[in-house]
Each structure stands twice: as C-alpha cells, then as structure tokens.
Amino acid sequence: MNAQPAVLEDQQQRILECIRDFIQERGYPPTVRDIARELGISSTSVVDYHLKRLEQARWIERDPRSSRGIRLTAAGARGLGLGEIVSVPLLGDIAAGEPIPVPSSDFSLLGVEETIELTRSIVGDPQDLYALRVRGNSMIDAMVHDGDIVIMRPAEEVANGEMAAVWLRDREEATLKRVYWEGGRVRLQPANPTMEPIYIDDPRQVQIQGKVVMVIRRVR
Amino acid sequence: MNAQPAVLEDQQQRILECIRDFIQERGYPPTVRDIARELGISSTSVVDYHLKRLEQARWIERDPRSSRGIRLTAAGARGLGLGEIVSVPLLGDIAAGEPIPVPSSDFSLLGVEETIELTRSIVGDPQDLYALRVRGNSMIDAMVHDGDIVIMRPAEEVANGEMAAVWLRDREEATLKRVYWEGGRVRLQPANPTMEPIYIDDPRQVQIQGKVVMVIRRVR
DNA sequence: ATTATAAACGAACATCCGTTCGGTGTCAAA
DNA sequence: TTTGACACCGAACGGATGTTCGTTTATAAT
User: Fold this and answer.
1) How far is Cα B24 from Cα B35, in angstroms, rounded to an integer?
2) What nucleotides of chain D have any atom within 7 angstroms of a protein Cβ?
3) Which of B4, B110, B135, B144 is deepest in the core (most CB within 10 A)?
4) ipTM of the predicted structure?
5) Which domains does chain A have, with CATH numbers?
6) pTM, whole model, 2 decimals?
7) Contacts with A39 (C-beta within 8 Å, 6 or more apart), sequence order
8) Which of residues 27-86 of A touch B (CB under 8 A)?
C-alpha cells in the first residue's frame, strides 16, 4: 500500500528526520540554515547539496525561490508517520426509537462542538461526511455495539445492497441495515449473516437517512 | 470538546482561511506578502497589523524574526479542521484457526508495507500499537466482521473484563473475547450480550496476545 | 467639532534566505 | 598515478521577508 522511496544513508537520513522534527515542533519547515545549525554543518551549500539528492530520491519536494519551500512527499510523509486529517462532525446519537439526526444544509465545522478526526487514507472522500454515536444495543443485528461511532454520508436513496441508516415511518424505528429493493417490497438485511431479514411491503415506509461508510468502536 | 477562540470579523476570517488553505496546499505557511497578494491587499503592513490581532485572539502563534513563522494554535487548527496523525503498522491477518501475528521486538514503521493512519485524538497513546485484519466470520460473537480492522496493544496479561486477542493452545484457536479470571478457571465472554461465555478450566491454555483497543469497519 | 479607533497605504531598512561558485580532502576504481 | 564521485567548506550575490514609520480615510463616540 505504502510504497517508499529508496533507502538512504546517514546524513540524508539525519536531514530528513531533522525536517520532520522541525515541522512537528514548529509547524513550518526549516530553512537551509536551520538544518545546517541543527546538524552542525557549517556551510549552507552542503545542506542544499543533500536536499537536491533527497528531492531526486522523491523524499521531499522543493519550491524553488521560496523560503522554507520544503515539503515531504506523500510517500516520504507516510514513511515518517505523517499524513492528512479530516474532521467529521459528530451530530448526535442514533437510537432505535428516536429520529436520526441529519446534517442541516449549511453545516460547517465551526459551530459543531465535537468532531471525529480521521485520516483521509482510511476515510476516502470526506465531503459531507458526518458521525453519529450509537446508543443502546438495538443494532446488534447490524454488528454495531452500544457506544460505537458510525460514519455516514447523506443520501436519500441507496443502491441495492448498500448499508444505510433507515427510519421506518410506521414503526417509528431507526436501524442500520443493508437495503434491497425487491419489486414492490423492501428487504432489510442485517449485517450479521446468522440473522433473518425484515421485509417491508410498503416502500414509502422506508426513509433512507444516509449510507454507512464506516463503523468505529473504541473498546473500553 | 473543542473550545474555540473568540469569533472574528470579515478580513481576519479571510486571512485565517488563507493561511489554512496555503498550508494545506503547499505544506508550509505563507509569508506576509503571500497573504497580501492572495487577498488583494497592497501593503504588507496591513497584513502584519491583522496578524498581530489574530495572535492576540489566540488563533495563531508567530515566531518573531522567522520567515513564515506562522502557526495555527491547537484550538485554531481544530476550528479549521486539522490535527495530528499516527501510523499503525498492519502486521497481518487474524483468523480462527491460525496463530495471531505479534510485533517483533524492534519493529519500526519503515519496513512495514501497509499502515493504518489514525489521529491521535481517537487512538490515544500510539505507543506500540499494531493492527490486524480479521479474516472470516468466526468472530461474529465478538461483534467483529470479516474484513474489520482491529487495533491492538501488545500484552501478555490483561485485567479482568478487558477485551483481548486470545490464542487457545489446546483448541489451536484464535478469538477476541473479554477475559475474566475466576479462581482456577477462565471465562471468555463474547462482546455480543446475547451469546454465551466459554469456560476454560486450565488457565495455561489461554495465551493472551494483546488488548483490543479499537475496531474499525469500512463498509462495502 | 473634536477625539478615538480601526483599517489601510507606501516606502524604507536590516536581516534572512536560496543559490551559486571556486576550493579542499577522501576514497575507490581504472 | 590519475580520475571521478562524494561530502564538505567559506564567501558572496540578489532577491525575499519581517518590521517599523509616517500618513490617510472612514466611522463612531464624546
């Protein structure tokens, strides 16, 4: 999954770590002279020399003529344990007998008091995502536990077989199920293969609130 | 959860977003002149003027005499959707009939071909964490699905009630269960409350491989 | 009408910074 | 022995950059 640039030697390695640590500590990249000072190198040209090699080896990228214009490449950042973060607003709880919260049209991160922070690499496209906390054990048949966090993408309809948060109008009930449209009726299939599906004869009773993208369980 | 600095007005807001976007795009902060250019301000002193206010309002921090020495504060970064990343090595699969992979003494991120990237805010202390991919449906009674990722912390023993990856020597079987030491015997309790526990009379048959810290399920 | 404050302008200065250039020493291959 | 690479040094140039200063305009309060 994470292809890494070629292995490199002593000094280059030190410079790379120096860049990473500097960014980690100060929030912006070092200058050539910062690196020289840190590593006890007395000439800036030496650092420039090594930076050019690190750039050739695809560990870093540089913006020419821009001060501190050093960037770790995606691969380099992964190799050093860095990445990109996505904040998903936690909009509330999902429980069997209560309506499912959905994002208002103009929701933004500012204003939400709690957020779930995930990396883009596991969440994919973060557009419009929101999170709900599961309350109660009524969704055990979806293999979802009390306290689990579900990451949702808003949707009013879903393709066959997709896992969705569903509000059943007549039963006044919320569930997480895979949805299958079968002619006139709807089959709601639990994620747990040992459990039986529910059939809803009137599709209008099935209100799709969003697709389930991910389930996160913090144990204990 | 995420306390935010005071609300601010038009131009300050624009400057803040400009800084965030610049960092997001280029990997390092803008100069005073970069900001001025971006916002169509003709004098650098204007930007300096606003930056000082943003600093007073605790949205940003500045390193004096350092070029591009602008940093979003922790609160400011959260308010704009940024954070800190942790890479967890994915060491292999966990399946019912196979031994559980455990980290070797000197494992490091470089060398692992696949990693799971999480944020510190959901994972807590990232020290020694590793990840396993669940294969098969044999752990349904732990509410864990085929394909789920479990995040583990190495441990050779666990406290009562903790969820652990367990290797049962005599059965040659791997499971995820809550472990209870009850006098001479061991109770292995499924996370699914509708299911019955297993009792092991000889505690030496129970080999703890690690504590389960988190379960992640990517749906579909 | 006066004062205070916020927001902006343009110019200027000293320092910071990337980059280049000419050299030096070491070591292994030819 | 010569050659070429690698790693390093010190100096210097020109442009980038943070910061300060004096001035101006608009708005609201006194």
Assistant:
1) 14
2) 7-12, 15-22
3) B144
4) 0.61
5) 10-79 (1.10.10.10), 85-216 (2.10.109.10)
6) 0.66
7) A11, A14, A15, A18, A47
8) 27-29, 31, 63, 67-72, 78-86
